[in-house]
Specification:
Pfam families: IstB_IS21 (PF01695). This is ATP-binding protein. Helices cover about 45% and strands about 15% of the residues. The protein is of the alpha/beta class. The chain has a 5-stranded parallel beta sheet with strand order 5-6-7-4-8. The protein is elongated and about 90 Å long. The structure holds adenosine-5'-triphosphate, magnesium ion (MG) and zinc ion. Magnesium ion binds near residues 128 and 129.
Length: about 270
């Protein structure tokens, strides 16, 4: 960015007053290097140009910060997920083909400005988080002014809990809830995994419910994408019904029933 103080006049500058007068600034024109000009007019022009340059630079930086948010501020356990996209989502069967289509159709609707929630449900390792990330990355590429964030629910809660003891940790409850509330598109990844073993029907702690409720309530007019292994009945047993009902408002469901766990596809024993 240029600064007006950094602009230096050349050493061999030839200057002389001329007979022309600037009525706006009540001063005589000067002949500077064979150009006749009012020095005050010129300074004003230069200042405006610099202000425009500064403003454009700020907008460019803001836009870049919005674009980078997904990559720099997402709360992940597994950073390799940041590489998940539609291009490297390989379809091998009918269900994967259909679910990729459904996700691409949702992307189209988001791009038109529609607001709704997506639920990716089904067993472990079937590509729920992969497709959720693919959606965010496509939204992020399509419009550099939208903000997208991917948050692993368990990791998010762990970081907030850690901030209770560790003052250096910026992930305070307020920081995290403000961050997750502010973004245009949010993925809440692996909902329900934070309460431990999914078969024990444990109730989520008041603390977990309170944080999720805060985020969900504040995002009523924004789109949220949720992935989970857990069915609705179990979710209602874990969190209160009102919270689950809010999360399921205006839901677009993408369910995996037959797809096999991709994490263990190459291992046979
Ligand atoms: N169709 C696919 N093509 C390419 N890679 C895939 C596909 N489905 C899943 N994967 C990869 O397999 C791994 C597991 O997928 P993913 O993390 O999306 O599973 P998940 O359904 O979210 O599982 P969990 O419920 O355990 O979180 C990831 O590395 C993902 O990139
Ligand atoms: Mg997952
Ligand atoms: Zn002038």
């Amino acid at each position: 960015m240029r600064n007006i103080a950094e602009i230096k006049l050349p050493h061999n500058l030839q200057m002389a007053y001329t007979s022309k007068f600037c009525y706006q600034h009540q001063c005589q024109y000067m002949l500077i290097n064979n150009k006749e000009l009012c020095t005050v007019c010129e300074t004003e022009k230069l200042t405006q140009q610099l202000e425009r340059e500064v403003a454009n630079e700020l907008i460019a930086r803001q836009t870049l910060a919005k674009y980078n948010m997904l990559y720099k501020q997402s709360i992940l356990q597994d950073e390799t997920l940041l590489d998940a996209g539609f291009k490297n989502y390989i379809v091998t069967d009918h269900e994967e083909t259909a679910n990729k289509e459904r996700a691409l159709n949702a992307l189209k609707q988001f791009r038109k400005g529609e607001v709704f929630n997506i639920w990716f449900t089904g067993n472990t390792g079937v590509g729920k988080s992969h497709l959720a990330m693919a959606l965010l990355r496509s939204l992020n590429e399509f419009d550099r002014h939208v903000t997208c964030l991917f948050a692993d629910v368990d990791e998010m809660l762990r970081r907030i809990r850690d901030s209770f003891q560790n003052r250096e940790n910026k992930f305070t409850e307020k920081y995290v809830t403000d961050l997750l509330t502010s973004v245009d598109y949010l993925v809440l990844d692996d909902l329900g995994a934070e309460t431990g073993d999914i078969d024990t029907e444990k109730r989520a702690s008041d603390y977990t419910s309170r944080i999720l409720r805060g985020i969900i309530n504040a995002r009523q007019n924004k789109s949220t994408i949720i992935t989970t292994n857990i069915n609705r009945t179990k979710l209602e047993a874990m969190y209160d019904r009102k919270l689950v009902s809010r999360m399921m408002k205006n839901t677009y469901l993408i369910h995996f029933a037959e797809t096999k766990d991709k994490r263990i596809r190459n291992i046979e024993f």
